[in-house]
Each structure stands twice: as structure tokens, then as C-alpha cells.
Design brief:
There is one protein chain. By secondary structure, this protein is an alpha/beta fold. Helix 6 links the parallel strand 6 and strand 7. The chain contains eight helices and eight strands. The longest helix has 17 residues.
Length: about 230
């Protein structure tokens, strides 16, 4: 996480501008998701260490609210902007708006939907194809390459979640004794993940492996509570 927070600030500070930023606007998709909270606190910690002022805004999962927040950052004259996108499809409009203002822009966590990021815009996040493949290969190994697989998709509007899911499907298809029996979205949420798992088990679904697009949905408490263990 230290490398992530440093990379974010370095990207925001140095992206197409000769001067170091003094103020950075940060719009997060949600404040109440654990991983995003870790990112937010890490940015704040690194910024304070560098003497940078950061303004955080919670988009609360609303694309329109996030767009307004970015516009407000531009109007306020911030030196750089960091965005954790609510929706991958919304980023081309955000990129266009921010680059017109000649402000460096860093997308974090959720893969932006731009076909190609314009100059002055960068993405800091994981390689979703590698993540999904490594995840499912390890789950397959632990299950001795057999069993019924349930997939918890993060968000159907998130390009990263869809890519991870495709990679899980690709790995499962390699092994004749494995098959996907359920595949539904739980919106990256711990509570929705628990509800989804409870529904599957209550309906008598035979599940040996659960592949979730993020840690929150895959929290072990979900399954213990859902199964009554």
C-alpha cells in the first residue's frame, strides 16, 4: 500500500506539469468501502507528509455527483485531480473535461473506460486480466481442479470486474471437472455478498468454490454466517 500511495501522489504531482501540486482534489466512488477507505487514508497520509492540501469528496456511487465534484475541483483551481470512478463508462467525459482545463488527472482502482488515455491522464491500478487469472488458477489448484464454481461480480458497469469475470470463466473452461453454476453481481459490497451467498445456499445450490471480484464480497464471515457455521 505504501508503494500505491506514493505512486498516486507522484503521478498527480508530476503528470504533465512542471510544478509540484499544492492542492489536489480527490473524488472517491464510495467512502464506506473498506479498500477505498484504505486508499483514501493512504493518500491523505502521503499528502500530509509532502505538505499538500487534499480535498476529498464522496460520490456515493452517483456518476452525476462525481462529475459535479470534478467540475468543482476545476473551478476551484486545484493543481491535480485523482478520481476513483463510479462507472468505467463515465471516464471519457471526465477525461475530456479535465484535460480541457489542463489539469493532471489520475484514475485509481477502477479501470477507466477510455479507449486511450489522453496526455496528462494516467491510471494507477491492477492488471485485471492477470488478477482474475491468478485468482482462479489458485482456487482451482486448492480445489484439486474440480468442483462447482460460483462467481461474485463486483459491478456490472465496471470494466475491471467484467474483465476479471471473463478471466475466471476462461480458467474454469480449461478444467473438465469444473463448471460455473452461479454468476451474479454483489456490487463489491460485503453485505450484498453475504446476502447473495445466503440465497445460493438457501436455494440448495451445490457450491465448492467462490470466486469474488474483490475481498469484501469474499470475506470468510459471509460463508460461515450463511451456512450457519
Amino acid at each position: 500500500m505504501k508503494s500505491l500511495q506514493t505512486l498516486l501522489l507522484v503521478a498527480a504531482l508530476g503528470c504533465s506539469t512542471p510544478l509540484l501540486a499544492e492542492t489536489i482534489g480527490v473524488s472517491m466512488a464510495y467512502f464506506d468501502q473498506n479498500f477505498l477507505t484504505i486508499i483514501r487514508h493512504s493518500i491523505d497520509k502521503e499528502a500530509k507528509a509532502r505538505g499538500i492540501t487534499v480535498q476529498f469528496e464522496d460520490a456515493r456511487g452517483d456518476v452525476g455527483r462525481q462529475t459535479d465534484q470534478v467540475q468543482n475541483f476545476i473551478s476551484a483551481g486545484v493543481d491535480a485531480i485523482i478520481v476513483d470512478p463510479v462507472n468505467s463508462a463515465s471516464t471519457p467525459a471526465i477525461s475530456k473535461m479535465v484535460t480541457r482545463a489542463a489539469i493532471p488527472l489520475v484514475y485509481v482502482n477502477r479501470t477507466p473506460g477510455d479507449s486511450q488515455l489522453p496526455p496528462g491522464v494516467v491510471f494507477v491500478g491492477s492488471d485485471e486480466k492477470e488478477s482474475g487469472t491468478l485468482q482462479m488458477e489458485e482456487l482451482a489448484r486448492l480445489a484439486n481442479y474440480q468442483g462447482n464454481v460460483a462467481v461474485m461480480i463486483g459491478n456490472l458497469t465496471d470494466a475491471g470486474a467484467l474483465q476479471r469475470t471473463r478471466d475466471v470463466e476462461r480458467v474454469v473452461a480449461k478444467y473438465p471437472k469444473m463448471k460455473i453454476v452461479q454468476k451474479q453481481s454483489a456490487n463489491y459490497s460485503r453485505s450484498e455478498g453475504m446476502d447473495l451467498m445466503m440465497n445460493w445456499l438457501t436455494n440448495g445450490e451445490s457450491i465448492d468454490i467462490v470466486a469474488a471480484n474483490n475481498d469484501e464480497m469474499a470475506h470468510w464471515r459471509h460463508y460461515g454466517a450463511a451456512a450457519g457455521r
